[in-house]
């Protein structure tokens, strides 16, 4: 049910790369499709400089519904992903615990089916991120962009 196209509207994280890259970040599109065995294939397309970069990840389902795991081949980090809440048609709130040898971090993503979301949903995202121990500096509503949006379908 999470399948299809989403826009990343909000991103919160206490990782170092986020602090460094935050000012460069823009909204991106993410397409989620289910594999035959119930895992999720996640493809994100985002603006990087004047190009569009695509990143594929395979989220492996776990015993618990709404929970997935992913290991980044690039960084060797392990991601524990859980879908906190969603109504499938409008928005999804996803929390990820990332652990690697240098320590762990928390990331919260707000996905939307459209490029705009109601203030209530944005507020819920901010509130939930704070509950995860993230500070206001670490919570970002991503600036809208039309770059890399068209070819993401």
TrEMBL record:
Entries under InterPro entries matching the protein: Calycin (IPR012674), Lipocalin (IPR002345), Lipocln_cytosolic_FA-bd_dom (IPR000566)
Enzyme class: isomerase
EC identifiers of the protein: 5.3.99.2
Protein keywords: Cytoplasm, Disulfide bond, Endoplasmic reticulum, Fatty acid biosynthesis, Fatty acid metabolism, Glycoprotein, Golgi apparatus, Isomerase, Lipid biosynthesis, Lipid metabolism, Mast cell degranulation, Membrane, Nucleus, Prostaglandin biosynthesis, Prostaglandin metabolism, Secreted, Signal, Transport
Annotated signal peptide: none
GO function terms (MF aspect): prostaglandin-D synthase activity; small molecule binding
GO biological process terms on file: mast cell degranulation; prostaglandin biosynthetic process
Subcellular location: Cytoplasm, Perinuclear region; Golgi apparatus; Nucleus membrane; Rough endoplasmic reticulum
One GO CC term on file: extracellular space
Stated family: Belongs to the calycin superfamily. Lipocalin family.
PANTHER family to which the protein is assigned, alphabetical: LIPOCALIN (PTHR11430), PROSTAGLANDIN-H2 D-ISOMERASE (PTHR11430:SF86)
Subunit relationships: Monomer.
Protein name stated in the entry: Prostaglandin-H2 D-isomerase
Gene that encodes it: Lipo
């Amino acid at each position: 049910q999470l399948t299809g196209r989403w826009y990343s509207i909000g991103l919160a994280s206490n990782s170092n790369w986020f602090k460094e890259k935050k000012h460069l970040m823009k909204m991106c599109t993410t397409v989620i499709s289910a594999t035959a065995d119930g895992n999720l294939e996640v493809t994100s397309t985002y603006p990087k400089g004047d190009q569009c970069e695509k990143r594929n990840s395979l989220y492996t389902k776990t015993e618990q519904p709404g929970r997935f795991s992913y290991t980044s081949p690039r960084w060797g980090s392990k991601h524990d992903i859980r879908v906190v809440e969603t109504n499938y048609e409008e928005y999804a709130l996803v929390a990820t615990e990332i652990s690697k040898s240098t320590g762990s971090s928390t990331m919260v993503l707000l996905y939307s089916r459209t490029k705009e979301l109601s203030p209530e949903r944005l507020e819920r995202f901010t509130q939930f991120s704070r509950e995860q121990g993230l500070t206001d500096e670490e919570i970002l509503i991503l600036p809208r962009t039309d770059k890399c949006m068209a070819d993401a379908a």
